[in-house]
Amino acid sequence: MIPCVALVGYEAASVGLRKTAGADQTKTAMAAASLELLAAINVGVMVYVGHKHAVRSSGSLALFLLCTLLFDVAKSRAFFLRSGMDPVAALAAASAAMRFCLLILEELSKKNLLLDDKVREESGPEATSGFFTRLFFVYLNRMFITGFAKELRIPNMVKLDAEFSSERLYAQLKKEWDRGGEEDFSRYRLILACFRAFKWDLLVIFIPRLINIGVSFAQPFLVQVITRTAELDHDGRGDEVSSGKRGGMQGATLGVFVCLAVSKAATAHYSNKLATKVRGGLVAQLMDKAHGMSEQEARKASVLTLMSSDVESIVKGLTNFIDIPFTILEVGIGVFFLSRFIGVSCFSVLLPVLGTNIGSWLLSQKTGSSLAVWNKAIEVRIAKTTEVLHQLPSIKMLGLGPVMRDQIHRLRVNEMDLSKPFRFYMMLLNMTQQFADVGTPVVVVAFAFFWRGFGRRMTSTIVFPTLTVVNLIQAPTGRVLLAYPAFTAMLACFDRIQKFLLLPDRQDSRLPWGPSSHSSTLGQSPQSSGEIIQFSDASISPLGMDESLLTGVNFALTRGSISGVIGKTGSGKSTFFNSILGEAKIDSGYVCTERVNIAYCGPKIWLRDASVRQNVIGCLEFDAVRYEVAIRVCHLEQDLARLPGGDKYVVGPNGSNLSGGQRQRVSIARAVFAHCDVTILDDSFSSLDKRTATSILFGLCGPNGVLRASGSTVLLSTYIPEFLDVVDNLINIDEKGHVTLEDTQSGGPAQSQVITDYLNAERRGANEEVEEREQLSLQQRWNADPKPSVDSSETYRRQRGNWRLYIVLINAVGKLNSLALGGIALLLAVSEFLPPVLTRVWSEDGPEDGRYFIGYALAAVLACASAALAYWFLTGVFAVKSAVVLHEQMLDVTMRATLGFVTTTKTGNLLNRYSQDAGLFAQSLPGYFFRTIYTSIMTVIIIGIVLSSTSYMSATIPFLLAAIGLLQAFYLRTSRQMRHLDLEEKAPLYTFFCETMDGLAHLQAFGWRLENLAAGYRLLDRSQQPYYLMLAIQQWLGLVLSLLTSAIAFITVSVSVWQKNNASGSAVGLSLLALLNFQRTLIMFMDAWTISETSVAAISRLEQFKKDTPQEPRLPLPESVPVNWAPKGGVNFTATSSRYRAANDAPPALRNLSLSIIPGKKVGIIGRTGSGKSSLLLTILGFLHHEGKVEIDGINVKTLDADFLRSRVVTITQDAVLLNETVRKNLLPFTVNDVEEGLTDEQRAARASRDAELALVLGRLNLREQLGSRGGLDAMLLDVGYSKGELQLFSIARAIVRRQEIASNLVLIDEATSNLDLVRADATQQVMREAFADCTVITVAHREEGLEAVDFSIVLDGGAMLTMAEAEAAAARLFSSAAQD
Description:
Blueprint: H1 2-20, H2 29-53, H3 59-81, H4 86-107, H5 117-122, H6 125-128, H7 131-135, H8 141-149, H9 166-179, H10 189-197, H11 199-203, H12 206-216, H13 219-234, H14 243-291, H15 295-300, H16 303-322, H17 324-342, H18 350-390, H19 392-397, H20 401-450, H21 460-501, E1 511-512, H22 519-522, H23 526-529, E2 531-542, E3 550-558, E4 562-566, H24 573-581, E5 584-593, E6 598-601, H25 612-617, H26 624-633, H27 637-642, H28 660-674, E7 678-682, H29 690-701, H30 706-710, E8 713-717, E9 729-733, E10 739-743, H31 749-761, H32 768-782, H33 792-800, H34 804-813, H35 815-845, H36 852-895, H37 899-904, H38 907-949, H39 957-998, H40 1000-1006, H41 1009-1058, H42 1065-1095, H43 1097-1108, E11 1131-1139, E12 1150-1157, E13 1162-1167, H44 1173-1180, E14 1185-1192, E15 1195-1196, H45 1202-1207, E16 1210-1212, H46 1223-1227, H47 1241-1260, H48 1277-1280, H49 1284-1302, E17 1306-1310, H50 1318-1331, E18 1336-1340, E19 1352-1357, E20 1360-1366, H51 1367-1380
């Protein structure tokens, strides 16, 4: 406050001196001094209030201090030059000094002055810095230095302010969105909500933008004055211009260019802030909506596309849209100033402007809809890619890798085909814009020369200022032309997001049980009866099914009771559980429950790609006691001891890095830790051996079980007969869908059914060794394909880039295409500058000769044609080729990756490549690669034009090139890393969305919506940080380049006005006109180069992906093997040793195995944990590296391509492959790429015959009835509603159909009936025996009953064959020994 007091004192003293001053002062001097005193007092008040209550320094105060500082300096100088005014001059100088001190103090960061710890933590450098520090982006310098010197990470980056908090942005947008009400179905509801929510961020853009407009229109007058001066100097009349005026021209040039630079940077920065907030608000809205949807709707919605492609399109179009009203203002002001030079001809500038705007508006009607079609194609491709990546291991085992690869590639090609209408309309728009750029001057010159304005003479002092004004009108016109398609595309994306937000929320089918319920309908209240769930004459069906699956459900469950649900496969047990979760349709009656959280363990296990601990505690706070209990009860102690990192071990996408049993036990541990009022265990022990499952069951529900002790109401369905010893009630579901509840002590009919049917007919769990086998397989996989770490060379590439990556792009699109692109860029750049060069020639050689106009107009036509050619070739040939070829390379690497890599890589990371990087291949990379070439040529041309008028400028060229090179090198190191971080931080956000949609039923049951949303907001915050800073550093670069341009302009004008007889007025006018474009061109060049460098990082990631991803070898088909090879079933192992990794230090999974299986035999493979049973199957299928020989029908599998081999062997895996296709195509997955349209009569007849065979197979497995009301074989598989067991039957049906299709006699089976009850399993085994009667069937036996139909069994131990004996004898010895252990 000391400088403020001193300032007030100096101003008060100045008032006193004015009062006692003589008569030489003006009448207003005293009033002016008094106002300055009041202003000084106000400054003191503002400084004090800001110091006490504001985090951010005042921008208006800083500007006021700067302006008054300059005025005080000027006053001090003037007063010192006048006699008798020394005291006043001294006070003015002292006042200036105090203002300077205040200005410096206001620029100091306030972070250390903040008393509130939370506010200090949330406030970033931008919020606490001074106004000019923010205006010139000085707060970014430390981050630039860090990025230049070392690797840039999130902690090294500038922290965002609290105003960017995702929760805050969500609340702002949600408030305005809800204002519309449920009845508001306006198309513009969402966009209007965005503008209302962030209105202040929108309004603040107006201030620098209006300043920019005002300063811009000072340029033509500056050009006129400088051109006249040069013309006078050239004619030898330079004495008519005083030195003061020449110095004023220098100062005006510097002031205009600097003000333009600062105002433009500020406008862009505020626009980027608005765009970032809109992005955060929209993604947060999508996140919130996703949590409130039903699981059925969530499967249909492609929220990932909305939050990536659509939101990005909105952000890109938003800044263009905001500029539209300013553009209209600029055009109006431009026409006014143009009239000052050419009179009534000024209106001619509106003809091309209006014409191009009308054309742009008409074309924009097409671009929006065509972009929506393109985005829909992207959505379809990403959805299919996601589906395939989630199931890739099983897809590869079935030999479907090439089929899925071709399908995704076909979708990519189709996506590019569907983008061609959009690209075509954009080509027309670009040609229209080019006409506005080069055609408008032609029209104006024609009117001015041949009608009114120039007086039939091309005078440099009129022509070049006129062209400057035209240029100022052209620039906003060009932005309008770009804004129209961007605006319509933005509206289309807003519309898609709005439709998603208006989707119906999840309708909870349960009724709340409380005081508001009708007692006559619902019975006693739970508080008086102790009941927690009640069914009142309920008829229940799965969502999407018309007929009730369960009927007459009429009973209540008491609080703390434990109930067992029994019924055959497909009877409706999961539907019963879903009714309690509120995820079923209640056709009649009621299902009533208290609104409590439910710990849900469903048949579909859901785990996050996080650590074991994070999955167990879910969205809750860590509690050491509860965590220890959950780990102990679920028998996870030994697992954690073996896993690398213990409970910090990352389980992989949906637990892919865990065995099946471990996944289930982690899921159960989560339910135990949650400590909910209700716990549902739906088939949650299916992957556990009986001993482990029984122990966990008693630990949960036994007399001292943790769930019983906690008072949780438990409902469970399991194969374990011992559950009768722990349940209080039995809920029986018969074949007709009748549901009854009986006490276990009543001895009623349900009890009898359990004794006679359930205990004997229900399937048994996996053998204990299955779990250990899977764990050993995982341990081998840990060492199979080690992941490369980010080393110093990777950091170097991130910082400095690699020019060889452009060679990869050139090779991808073809060298001839690349050469043609460069030639077109040269043609376009030259043709654009040809008209202004001809203007100089015209004004110098024949200023009154109208024939020059013909060449001038033809040059403009050439420029328009060149623009159309350039855009067509770039988007229709170059970009399409880049998108398809690079995506295909990435797809090939993914689909040929080894099993170890596929199962240990995060799906979100892979998916990010197919969304973000694929988008860069198709749009940003080709576009900015071309723009870099084009603008670099433009820059050279402009420098040449400037040198042609001021040859002395050539001395500055080395310094200019050095400055640009050093600046770009300094900037690019940080920019490249920022782009990497932007993509890296988006990947967890994509993974979060995928995991949330997959686990929606679990999140809603547990009641973790708010907690999961909070986690999503944190990920969004991390994603926003590099996104916003990327935009900020781009504006930093633009500002620095603009200041560099200001220096060049200053030097050019200085040389022009002081070096007499140097160049003609036309030459100087052309140079100034080029310099006005040089600022824009240089920024475009640097932006294009920068974005090209950051976009080419996608190729770097692709090359690194190709280098680091272990691949299965590609082999040509041996001549002796036909394309339609059908194995007869003979399998021979000769001294075979196989490993998971092709290295001698890797332990062998099979050891010197020699075995011969003759065709037609049924073989069971058994053994203890780690014996090599699964490794044997994987060796046959070509997944493992092996020595020795593995032969099928005498053909060495090493000579066969792995995908071809797997496609000719019939394999049944444990995990069913489910494609979002029709039932027909799921049964015939190798036909998914076949064209179904335009079939001949013969083909239709063949298809009908094939359909009859498919229906017969489904009927034999009791899967046909569900298809009747859903369209038969044309029904989408995911909409049929098959249970988990029925989906396993569907996999068997697919194998039977595949065997009929290719006549292969080699069948590999791995636990085909694990999810079936014994009655249905026996029936299925009979179907399989008939279908595979003549085949060689190799079955990995996990349970004793799996060996009932085999001819002999092979016992493996430690990868070596121990014995080979009759099935029953071998099985009896092995499984009895395992039971004793």
